[in-house]
Task: inverse folding
């Protein structure tokens, strides 16, 4: 529900899609009715749709009106007109051509609406069954009432025989006719209409109507209508597929964009909490799950209820007496779906966590391939990957085996319903309560209702997993960064340009048991180099991250440009800093684009100057394309020293007040190190330089050296001063420098 806002930009397309789904559903729901019409009307009734014939002879109408009530006779008088066979019909042809064997006069039905037509059909059907009942009582003719045979035997009667008994019928007492009418009215309306249609066929034959032509015309007309409806439904289905795919893809695109934007705003604390592998999975695999649900769900979640409800309504219109079959099938299907979903739902959350785990192992193996090969640890990593892969596979197999059961169980229910409909429907046909076409239509509607459940069950396969993915995505989108800018940030002080001041700074990483930095106080001034040295884990790189506000201090404060870093915009703060990390992380592209990354407007001259200062021209000149040479992802086609030099050049290309070199000289040889330091002294004379290093030779000429030990400053001064008064610095220097350099 929290992600539904991503559908708002596609609301118009969604409305169009739902409208098309309604059109597709209505077309599919109407086809069984047309099919029933072909079977019932086209085949069984010779194309005759109504018990009240369009035209009837004078004797035929007099025969039936004698068996009607006064109200029904009045209805007949209002709706039938006596015409001459020589007159022209509304179609512009004579009635003689339409009814070749008609006498000089015949009755023709006026144009009427469906409600009046239903009353006429009821009147003719009741009169027909009244005639059947009277004939059975008189013993004048074998009838369905007397023999138990189907009422369509009336169609086989010769009209001449009926006309011969007409005087006898007219002489019967009114009570006898009324009793026959009451008995006729006990029949189902469908049976009355069918019997009337059979007698109407005899009236048409009497007038010379070619029944085979009438039958063929009805079948062709209905078949063409079915073809048009099917084409419309097919076109709607294609458009629905196109629109739903576009909506799903667009929503997924926007979702990925917002996730990525949110991740970019994270501080290092949030990255540490989620982990890179999990964030990659959430940005790719989890979003794909949402996209698949939208693509399938828009079509099925909307379409299945329309088909299900519509199918029930249409089935009830075909036969109310068999509706219990659909109700029973729906209850069974709902129970199956609920049981299966309750089993697999807990597994979906586990599944996504296992995907996270597999991504983590894969990422570590690919990024650390050189280390793995160097230590011949391929078998160990294969086993580690195999364990993660096996756990994911087993869980996937369990989920899919459970979900696979759904289809055969649904098919079993579907086939059982088909058999049940045929069995019950056969009894209904035998009792003349239904026609064959109605049973066939009911079966198709029942299948459509079950198919609606099948569609929903397919959606249920995606919904639980997508729900888990949505929850993981929402975690990222709702995660507020621990580091936020003030609504009204302060400006840097002009007189303190380039100043970096630590005032009793303490810091502890989230979840750590003790502080990484404790009561750290120092000042780095413009035009001077402040070096930080110490053993591994002493907190050197943490200082660089705190200056750039990757983390917020736990205690004390850090001043840059005379203002607490927490009171200025992070972008403004980082715009003042040129940073070169130890790892030399490079993005794919050319050498030029890599150096220009921190300063897009840098000219070619500025790029060359930065590369020269970083001592990178030595290897850049070896490429035929020089600055146009391609760099592989992560700088895979460069050595460690080359990557560090390009990383330093990238920092130098940016005009900054403060430059931080986080042990970014570690992969350089001593000659290049010395040349680079001399060049930096010349180029960055007016800027504040903070140099973090492990090698004493790199920082021994700095104006201020800070010695860290377990997060505490244990020494501060120049190289010579520290050699005299700081045992920790002396120990580090003694391990790296010759004896004469310690003097």
Result:
């Amino acid at each position: 529900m929290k992600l539904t806002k991503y559908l708002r930009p596609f609301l118009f397309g969604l409305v169009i899609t739902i409208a098309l789904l309604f059109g597709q559903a209505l077309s599919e729901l109407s086809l069984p009715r047309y099919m029933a019409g072909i079977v019932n009307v086209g085949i069984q009734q010779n194309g005759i749709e109504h018990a009240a014939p369009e035209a009837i002879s004078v004797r035929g109408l007099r025969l039936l009106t004698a068996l009607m009530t006064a109200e029904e006779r009045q209805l007949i008088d209002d709706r039938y007109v006596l015409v001459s066979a020589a007159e022209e019909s509304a179609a512009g042809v004579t009635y003689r051509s339409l009814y070749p064997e008609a006498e000089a006069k015949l009755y023709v039905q006026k144009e009427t609406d469906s409600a009046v037509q239903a009353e006429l059909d009821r009147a003719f059907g009741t009169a027909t069954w009244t005639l059947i009942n009277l004939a059975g009582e008189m013993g004048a003719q074998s009838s369905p009432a007397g023999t138990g045979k189907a009422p369509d035997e009336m169609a086989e009667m010769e009209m001449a025989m009926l006309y011969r008994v007409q005087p006898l019928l007219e002489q019967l007492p009114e009570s006898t006719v009324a009793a026959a009418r009451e008995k006729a009215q006990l029949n189902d309306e469908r049976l009355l209409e069918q019997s009337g249609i059979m007698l109407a066929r005899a009236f048409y034959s009497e007038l010379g109507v070619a029944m085979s032509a009438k039958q063929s015309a009805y079948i062709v007309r209905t078949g063409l209508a079915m073809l048009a409806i099917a084409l419309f439904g097919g076109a709607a289905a294609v458009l629905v597929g196109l629109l739903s795919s576009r909506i799903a893809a667009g929503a997924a695109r926007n979702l990925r964009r917002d996730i990525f934007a949110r991740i970019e705003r994270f501080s290092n604390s949030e990255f540490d909490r989620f982990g890179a592998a999990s964030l990659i999975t959430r940005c790719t695999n989890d979003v794909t799950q949402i996209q698949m649900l939208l693509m399938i769900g828009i079509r099925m979640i909307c379409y299945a209820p329309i088909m299900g409800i519509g199918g029930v309504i249409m089935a009830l219109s075909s036969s109310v007496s068999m509706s219990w079959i659909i109700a029973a099938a729906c209850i069974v299907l709902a129970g199956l779906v609920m049981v299966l979903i309750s089993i697999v739902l807990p597994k979906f959350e586990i599944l996504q966590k296992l995907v996270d785990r597999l991504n983590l192992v894969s990422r570590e193996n690919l990024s650390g391939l050189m280390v793995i090969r160097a230590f011949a640890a391929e078998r160990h990593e294969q086993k580690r990957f195999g364990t993660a892969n096996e756990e994911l596979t087993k869980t996937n197999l369990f989920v899919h085996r459970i979900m696979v059961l759904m289809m055969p169980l649904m098919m079993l229910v579907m086939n059982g319903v088909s058999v049940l409909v045929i069995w019950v429907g056969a009894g209904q046909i035998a009792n003349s309560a239904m026609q064959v076409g109605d049973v066939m239509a009911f079966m198709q509607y029942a299948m459509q209702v079950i198919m609606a459940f099948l569609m929903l069950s397919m959606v249920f396969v995606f919904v639980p997993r997508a729900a888990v993915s949505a929850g993981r995505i929402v975690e990222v989108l709702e995660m507020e960064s621990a580091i936020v800018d003030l609504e009204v940030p302060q400006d840097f002080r002009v007189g303190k340009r380039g100043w970096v001041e630590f005032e009793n700074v303490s810091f502890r990483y989230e979840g750590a048991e003790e502080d990484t930095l404790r009561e750290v106080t120092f000042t780095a001034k413009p035009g001077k180099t402040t070096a930080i040295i110490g053993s591994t884990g002493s907190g050197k790189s943490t200082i660089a991250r705190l200056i750039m506000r990757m983390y917020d201090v736990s205690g004390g404060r850090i001043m840059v440009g005379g203002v607490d870093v927490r009171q200025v915009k992070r972008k403004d703060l980082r715009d003042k800093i040129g940073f070169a990390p130890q790892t030399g992380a490079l993005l794919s592209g050319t050498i030029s684009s890599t150096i220009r990354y921190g300063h897009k407007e840098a000219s070619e001259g500025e790029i060359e100057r930065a590369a020269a200062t970083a001592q990178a021209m030595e290897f850049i000149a070896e490429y035929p394309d020089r600055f146009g040479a391609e760099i592989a992802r992560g700088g895979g086609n460069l050595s460690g020293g080359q990557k560090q030099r390009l990383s330093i050049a990238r920092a130098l290309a940016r005009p900054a007040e403060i430059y931080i070199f986080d042990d970014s000289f570690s992969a350089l040889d001593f000659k290049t190190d010395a040349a680079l330091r001399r060049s930096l002294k010349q180029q960055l004379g007016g800027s504040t330089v903070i140099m973090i290093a492990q090698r004493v030779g790199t920082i021994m000429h700095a104006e201020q050296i800070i010695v860290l030990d377990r997060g505490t400053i244990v020494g501060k001064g120049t190289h010579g001063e520290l050699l005299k008064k700081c045992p920790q610095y002396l120990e580090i220097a003694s391990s790296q420098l010759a004896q004469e350099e310690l003097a």
